[in-house]
Structures are given as structure tokens and as C-alpha cells.
Amino acid sequence: MHARHLRARLKGWGGVGAMAAACALAVVFALAVTCTGSVASQTGAQPAGHRTAKALTVDAARAADDCEAPEKQTLPPSRADGPAITAIKNRPGEKRKLVVGVDQNSFRWGYRDPNGGESGRLEGFDIDLVHRIAEDILGDPDAVQFKAIPTDQRIPAIQDGRVDLVVRTMTINCSRLKDVAFSAPYFKTGQQVLAPKSSPIEGYDETLAHRKVCTAKGSTAYAKLEEDRRSGDLPASTDISTTVPNQLDCLVRLQLGEVDAVVNDGALAASQAAQDPTVELKGEAFTTEYYGVAMKKDADDLVRRVNQILVDFRQDTATGWQASYTKWLSATLDDDPSASRPPAPEYLRRS
Question: What are the strands, taking DSSP E only, across 39-118?
Fold first, then answer.
């Protein structure tokens, strides 16, 4: 593509967008944050009336095989330590950190501040939650080793033990519950279409016929498009062959004119539209999805602990969920009432 044409397509993206594009097109790497802290003892009896961990784990496995409400298939909260948390706390010296898989180029969720100096500190809504979890488990919000991972590597990174958690705008669904465990949901969103303002595309409908759509590999967006094209709910002529490692790569493809539209979580797409004033959300959300913290399937104590942390995070009016939402997301999502408050959690119980 001619260089002048490329510059014209990218005009208006701004410093954040340029930074994010560079991150998106570069090889994703791991960022180690060299901060340590003292251990805060986290003990407490399991709430009365809860079933045994073994029984609830069996229920969770069954739920993954036959689930209709995946956001409810999680263990009740508890402050009690167990094998997974003890292993994290017993890491020696500088390795005594929470290892978390995150995104580094999702504006307002997990991204590097282009004005943050050489440190390139990660910021955003997901990053606030990571610091909250580290503070609760290890007594230091900065006792974190961040590992930037692409969308399609979220589950393998957990299964291989490369990370303790993934906090990366990850949708809870039945398929993923077969491979990993999730916390209760911490955010509600839905799939939407992002396209240039000048585009005749109107939303997730027949206007996508003969259009090229970009999604991230391993994303719920691609699975939905594939399913709907088979069933006839999406025009058969819609080209969904363009998939990329990270969601932001789709915005870059859109900027370069290589695709006509992007399908992504509305919460992420709204942040991408904030990076580039020449694009906008088209139509309404056509799914309902919930973000959760993902962990290994057998890390029951960690799942319970994260669920307790989320309870506290939602209830903390000063520095918790609402404060983080106001800081990072309200500018782009306040028009969506369901996004401006945390979803109410439900847990596995004795039937």
C-alpha cells in the first residue's frame, strides 16, 4: 500500500492508537514487574452450609458438560487457603508473586500508557482487578508478574502452568469450562460490530453480506460467526476467514482497509472506537457475555478466594469496582446501563 495512503488511513488514531498498533503487531512478550511485598495472612473458616470442595468440584465438572448458564458454574467464596494459594505464597524471594496473564494493548482494559515513561506500566480495568487480587493474597498490590498473552493462548497458558490466573476480558462459556475454572462474573457485555462511520454496514445483519469481517483467534466472536453462518443467521457470503492473535490487530486491519468490519465484545469495541474517531459501533449487541477470571480446573481454593475478593471489590465504594469503572470505562460505556454496574454473582449450591 502506498505510504501516503496508509498515513491518511491512520490519521486521527492518536498516540494511544499508534502505540497500541505497534504492540499488536509486535511479538507479544512477558513483562515482569519486579515488586515484592510482605505476606498478609489470609485465613478463615469456610462458611457454614457449604458443601465439601470435592463435591462442588464434581458439580462444576458436570455443569461444564451440561450448562445453560455458564456464569453461574463457579464455587462459593471463601477466604481459606488451600494448595494453590499456599504454593503461590511459598515461592522463594523475588519469585514470590502472583503470575497473571493479561492483555497489553486493550485500551482502558489492559494497556501500556504511552506517556508512562520507560517503565511502560500496565493500566486499565483488568489491571486494577489484578492488583486487588495480589494485595489480598500476598499483601502487596504490586507483587505481580504480568505475562502478556494473545487471545488464543489464554487457556493453554493456564493449563501449562505458565500463569496462575488470566484476567483478560475473557468470556465465561460452556466450552471453556471444560478446560479451565472461572470466577463469578465481574463484567457484562455482548458482541457488537465495529466499522467505519462511513460504512453502509448497519449491524449484525444482512448488511454484512459480501463483507470481510475480522475476529480474534480463539474468541467467542469467531465461534458465534461460524455458528450463525452455518445456521443461516449470518449471510453465507460474509467472509470470516480473517482471524488475528489479538483483538486490537483487527482494528489495525480495519484501519489499513484489509477488512470491512470487526466483531468483538462491545466493551472492547467501544474502547477501540475511542482510539479511532473514524469508526463506530454498528447496531446493538447480539449476545450476552460475562467476563470472568480464569484458573486451573483443580485450583478450587484459588477460585473460592478470587470469588471472595470479587465480593469485596464490588462492595468497596471507595476504591473498588465502581471507582475503577468510573476511571477507565464510563466515558465509553455509560450509555449501556447494564455495563455500568457489576453483575450479581451466583454460585454452585446443594440442590
Answer: 98-102, 105-106, 110-112
- Positive/negative CA dihedral, 243, 246, 247, 252: negative
Check residue 55 and give its pLDDT: 53
What does each C-alpha distance from 317 to 118, 133, 181, 313 come to in angstroms?
32, 17, 28, 8
CA 74 and chain centroid, separation: 17
User: Which pLDDT belongs to residue 100?
Assistant: 98
Whether the pLDDT of residue 67 is over 90: the answer is no
Among the listed residues 263, 238, 267, 249, the one whose alpha carbon sits nearest the alpha carbon of residue 329: 267
Q: What is the pLDDT of residue 64?
A: 52
What's the pLDDT at 351?
39
Hey, what amino acid is at 321? W
Mean pLDDT of 225-230: 96
Q: Does 263 have pLDDT greater than 70?
A: yes
Residues ≥6 apart with Cβ < 8 Å to 316: 323
Whether 169 contacts 62, CB under 8 Å: no
Quick one: how many helices (H) and strands (E) in the chain?
A: 13, 16
Whole-prediction pTM value?
0.82
For residue 264, the SS3 value is: strand
- Block residue for cell numbers 460504512: 199
**Mean pLDDT along residues 12-26:** 40
- In 190-253, beta strands by DSSP E: 191-196, 212-216, 239-244
Burial class (CB in 10 A: 0-12, 13-18, 19+), 204: buried
Integer CA distances (angstroms), 168 to 144, 186, 231, in order: 15, 11, 30
